[in-house]
Amino acid sequence: MSNDADREKQRQLYRQNDITAASFIPAKPKIDIYAGGRIFRVCAYCRVSTDNDAQLSSYELQQEHYKQLVGNHPNWDLKHIYADEGISGTSLKNRDDFNRMIEACRRGEYDLIVTKSVSRFARNLVDCISLVRQLKRQTPPVGVFFETDNLNTLSEDSELMLSFLATFAQEESVKKSESMNWSLQQRFKSGKLLTPELLGYERPKDVSGHYIKYARLEIIESEARIVRFIFDAYLAGHSIKEIAALLTDIGCKTKTGSDVWSEGSITYILQNERYCGNVLTWKTFTADMFEHRHKRNRQDRDQYLYTDHHDAIISIETYEAAQQLMDNHRHRALGALTRIRVIDDGVFRGYIPVNHHWVNDDPSRYYDASNSVNRKELLKRIRKNQFSAFDFQGYQVVRGQFLSMRPECPCITFLNGRIIFNIFCIRKFADVKFIQLLLHPTERKIAIRPCKEEDPYHISWCLDPDKPRSSKALSCPHFAIALYRIMEWNPDYAYRVRGTYAARNIDEIIVFNLANAEPATFLIEPETSNKRYARRTTLCPDEWEFTFGQEFYDHAMENSFFYLDDRSGWKASDQGHEFNDGKSPRIPTTEELQQSLHLIQKGDGIDGTDPSS
Fold first, then answer.
1. CA distances (Å), 498 to each of 262, 348, 489, in order?
2. Which CATH superfamily, name and number, covers 40-176?
3. What is the CA radius of gyration of the chain?
4. Whether 149 contacts 165, CB under 8 Å
5. What phi and psi, each to the nearest 5 degrees, are found at residue 599?
6. What is the pLDDT of residues 401-431, one digit of tens each?
7. Which residues contact 410 (CB under 8 A, 6 or more apart)?
8. pLDDT tens digits for 369-413?
9. What is the per-residue pLDDT for 76?
10. What is the Cα–Cα distance from 240 to 245, expressed in whole angstroms?
11. Cβ distance 498 to 510 under 8 Å?
């Protein structure tokens, strides 16, 4: 009953309204770009490609067209014509005139932009809609007139049509991009490579002076000398910055004719595989067609490597050595190319001094170097009857892990790409400032020995003897990978190895038998199920299941250095020699580099002499 009464009251109120007392206030008329009551300050925008001369010549025709178009509308006043040549419409970056035009509109200098179509204005849907909305919100609003689409953005019903047209323009760009990528892929696949000229090379020309398409690069010897010097100097230990400064100081010209060399230009040469006669396709690609961001191709696109495509200036070994050295430098391993060394005399005959900065995780390099030295002669000097007058065949030396009490023992732990030396290693070498880390891959042993600062691959140990030390951690991620591969260890485990300290006369060494490593892993308690409370648990290797230790004579051979006949010493400080595996290039001397610089000066005519004289 109450609802009916309320509705009746509302009817009475509506009947009592007197509209005769209201005053009508009309809305402002809609903006009409064709009406004669207002003068529109107009700017025009045109964009042409540089694919052919015909399109470049159309630039002038478009300007004449816009002058005529604006002249046909009495209320349009053409203030300026903006134009970009050869710039993609998928991004606002690098479209200088377009961006200047938009800034002028934001300052209120124009009321209307006239352009051919949505695709000329912007092929990016987001950019197109966003810009149009920004311009329309200004006071007074700025409109865009798309001629061929007959669309005026100042009209209220324009946004739906603009969205459709902008979407079609963007999709057209996507299709063009896909078509270009497909064309590149087919060309790379068929070996039709458009290799541009670079320092040291030139592209052959026909009789009319035009470049021959797909022709092999030809060497320019005067420039090739510069390329060889850059690689030689870099492998000899000169930094990229130093090489650039050297070439700049002697007035050497770049490929573009500049006499100033940058670090970027040197890096480009060192990383370019074309100098060893190869061509790698699609090294970079456009990851985002709208932002035009280039990305290094890491198997994101199909690639083809063409070897011996043209005459090489440097050998493949020199090129690969330069890449390896650049990797080393990225890991802060400065200096010249790493040369693997092998010790050829003394107790460490066949061992390899380890450069823990070396970016190499291939065990074969260590095996090749170690096997190049015959260690059998050393082992022959250790005879079975030297160990004891008794026969201990069948007896075992109990592992220290099974003893509740044992003496202080040096240990190392391999964990997360690091080698951690415990406090007893520090105490054994308490007065040592530098050590070397040694590896024998075949015997599966690691050793450390004191060394001098000038010795190859030295490692800082205890530079300040007064500073208390509990352990020493050595970061060596690449060597750790190689070592795990040599030992066939589980990469998820940590491994702990007990060592043996020994000394004779002035020689001190600590040897670790990796075959006796104790694996360990982190186990999560079931009641917590939380990695934060995980604890490392030592595991028992399978081969320990039925034994308490090692056969006596096996154990004695592992510690064979105790039984050497050399009473005068072990020659434990022998530094060995560089191992030539045939894969590393020869590093030139300082005198040879200076001679190369002199030839470059003569070859460039800097001193006015004939390089052949």
1. 51, 19, 17
2. Resolvase, N-terminal catalytic domain (3.40.50.1390)
3. 39
4. yes
5. -65, -35
6. 555 445 578 999 999 899 999 999 999 998 8
7. 421, 422, 424, 425, 428, 498, 499, 500, 501, 510
8. 999 887 665 555 544 445 555 555 556 565 655 554 455 789 999
9. 92
10. 9
11. no
The mean per-residue pLDDT over the stretch 580-600 comes to 82
For the chain, residues classed under CATH 3.40.50.1390 are 40-176
Segment of 208-212, 305-309, 515-519, 559-563 carrying the highest mean pLDDT: 515-519
Residue found by looking up tokens 């352990």 in the block: 471
Of the candidates 112, 575, 128, which has an alpha carbon nearest to the alpha carbon of residue 349? 575
Question: HSE (CB half, 13 Å, CA atoms) of 551?
Answer: 6
CATH 3.90.1750.20 intervals, the chain: 201-330
Q: Does domain 201-330 have CATH number 3.90.1750.20?
A: yes
Of 62, 91, 66, residue with least CA distance to 77: 66
State the Cα–Cα distance between residues 607 and 546, nearest whole angstrom: 80
Residue 204's CB is within 10 A of a number of other CB atoms, namely 10
pTM: 0.57
Tens-digit pLDDT profile for residues 324-343: 888 877 766 666 677 789 99
* Residue of 187, 188, 144 lying closest to 162 (CA atoms): 144
**CA pair distance 105, 110, nearest whole angstrom:** 5
d(CA 355, CA 476): 9
Question: CA angle, corner 55, sides to 49 and 61, nearest 5?
Answer: 120
Q: Which residue has the higher pLDDT, 52 or 445?
A: 445
- Residues 6 or more apart in contact with residue 344 via CB below 8 angstroms: 373, 574, 576, 577
CA 139 to chain centre: 49
Nearest to 169 by CA among 126, 105, 114: 126
Amino acid at 71: G
Instruction: Classify the phi-psi angles of 168: left when phi > 0, otherwise alpha if psi is within -120 to 50, otherwise beta.
Output: alpha
Mean pLDDT for the chain overall = 78
Stretch 518-544: mean pLDDT: 58
Token reading at 420: 């951690």
